[in-house]
Write a structure and sequence with these properties.
There is one protein chain. α8 runs parallel beside α9 (about 235-245). The strands form four sheets. Strands 5, 6, 7, 8, 9, 10, 11, 12, 13 and 16 form a ten-stranded mixed β-sheet that branches. Strands 2-3-1-4 form a four-stranded antiparallel β-sheet, covered by helices on one side. The mean pLDDT is about 95. The chain is globular, with a radius of gyration of 23 Å. By secondary structure, the protein is α+β, with helices and mostly antiparallel strands. About 25% of the residues lie in helices and about 25% in strands. The protein has helices at about 5-15, 20-25, 70-75, 85-90, 110-120, 135-145, 190-195, 195-215, 235-245, 305-310, 340-345, 370, 390-395; strands at about 35, 50, 60, 80, 100-105, 125-130, 150-155, 170-175, 215-225, 250, 260, 270, 280-285, 320-325, 330-335, 350-355, 355-360, 365, 385, 405-415, 415-425, 430. The chain has 13 helices and 22 strands. It folds into three domains: about 5-285, Vaccinia Virus protein VP39 (Rossmann fold); about 295-380; about 380-440, Roll (Nuclear Transport Factor 2, Chain: A). β21 and β22 form a beta hairpin.
Length: about 450
């Protein structure tokens, strides 16, 4: 085999009763294929092999689809996600959270956990999804935009920057960068990058990341800590270190077999060969309940765009949203969280804020792709249903003969919006976002 398992890793697994020798055998077997469906959009007609027991919206597939050639994938109707990481769904449903919590997904790209959290919140509360690497932050923005929730913000910041938001978040999810042992099956190249030195390096980095963001968690707030690795240094030992150094408490949760309890009952594992997944570790911590310093949110009414709201009425249902004019771009933010979202904007580098409804122009509103993909906001009636071939050409940025009325039209596939065109009678302008266009031949 081109990518043998590292000898030091093999020796550790063979000499420790946990997680067991079945892990070594499983790492040379095919990875399962799993997807999670959007709760508000049309489900694709997949050949389903079974349910992911710890996430009710997720299933296993008989084979891996060609996602790039499926219009429903581009429409955000589902998200291909590794099954183990979807344990987060079961964990979130057990937590005693505020009714509309402020949530931070700290290490969020490419967006699997962020889209899961967005579905869990169901457009209530607020989600800040952060990624420190700019190119990965753009991918995160694309995936969250296609998922289509307005209570989301995408930031591009170092963990320490969140010290500018003291006692702000009710819940943090820290899927910390790790040595990647849990990806040895799915990504064999990860085997070549692994070493004991890298494990130690990652364990230290994980401590620094949590220490950097801890002040941004409200007293009594919850932190979900996870990695995709099996060793105790990055998992149980780090969790116990957080408990000792930060006064955190381990929150009891229940996850049933085949998910395994961690060493000495600290956290839980998905283990290939035992669970039908890649490797994943998760634990839940609570911050001590001390005095809460209330934030003063800034950036208020001067950005609200009441006049433009009238023009946007035919495109979007803005009854529960504030419309913000941001450099001639119209953004819809949930009314209950407008000031909080603008407060984050004032402190952080942003990639995305709420849902962009459109751009202002002398001739009226030019609708934006973000609105097309948002099932909560989009109310536009002028729609053209495309065949699969037409939809793929549209997603490539092509134009082709298409009957329809003059003006902006929403194009759909299986009644799920894909994006906008401007119909000119005998032809149309394709408004699909250039950066998202399919480049592969079909």
């Amino acid at each position: 085999m081109n990518h043998p398992l590292p000898e030091a890793f093999l020796s550790r697994i063979q000499n420790e009763s946990f997680p067991g020798l079945q892990l070594i055998q499983a790492l040379d077997t095919p990875s399962p294929v799993s997807v999670r469906f959007h709760p508000k959009k049309q489900k694709p007609d997949f050949e389903i092999r079974g349910q992911v027991s710890w996430c009710e919206a997720a299933v296993y597939l008989n084979e891996r689809p060609q996602y790039v050639f499926d219009p429903l994938f581009h429409a955000g109707a589902y998200y291909p996600q590794e099954a183990g990481s979807m344990v987060l769904d079961s964990v979130l449903r057990q937590l005693n959270l505020a009714t509309e919590p402020k949530v931070l997904d700290l290490c969020a790209a490419p967006g699997g956990k962020s889209t899961l959290i967005a579905s869990f919140l169901d457009n209530k509360g607020m989600l800040v999804a952060n990624e420190v690497i700019q190119q990965r932050a753009r991918i995160l923005k694309e995936n969250l935009t296609k998922w289509g929730y307005s209570n989301t913000v995408v930031t591009n910041n170092d963990p320490e920057d969140f010290q500018r938001l003291p006692q702000f978040f009710d819940l943090m999810v820290v899927d910390a960068p790790c040595s990647g042992e849990g990806m040895f099956r799915k990504d064999p190249a990860a085997r070549d990058e692994w070493s004991d030195d890298n494990v130690r390096l990652c364990a230290g980095r994980q401590k620094r990341i949590v220490m950097d963001v801890w002040d941004a968690l409200v007293p009594g707030g919850i932190m979900v800590y996870s990695t995709c690795t099996f060793n105790s240094s990055e998992n149980e030992e780090n969790v116990l270190w957080f408990i000792k150094e930060l006064g955190a408490e381990l929150v009891p949760i229940e996850l049933h077999e085949p998910i395994m309890k961690g060493r000495n009952g600290v956290g839980f594992y998905c283990i290939p060969g035992i669970t039908e997944s890649e490797g994943f570790y998760i634990a839940v911590l609570q911050k001590p309940d001390e005095t809460l310093i209330r934030q003063r949110n800034t950036r208020k009414s001067e950005f609200r765009a009441q006049k433009d709201a009238l023009d946007c009425g035919k495109y979007a249902d803005l009854s529960e949203y504030d419309l913000i004019n941001w450099n001639e771009k119209l953004l819809a933010l949930p009314k209950n969280y407008t000031d909080s979202m603008l407060h984050v904007q004032a402190q952080m580098r942003l990639q995305k804020l709420g849902t962009m409804v459109g751009d202002t122009s002398r001739k009226g509103i030019i609708p934006n792709e973000e609105l097309a993909l948002n099932p909560f906001l989009n109310r536009y009636k002028e729609r053209i249903e495309l065949t699969k071939e037409q939809a793929l050409h549209y997603l490539r940025g092509d134009t082709f003969p298409l009957s329809g009325e003059h003006g902006y039209q929403l194009v759909t596939f299986q009644n799920v919006p894909l994006g906008w065109i401007k119909h000119l009678g005998n032809r149309f302008n394709n408004l699909y976002t250039k950066e998202w266009r399919i480049r592969k031949q079909f």
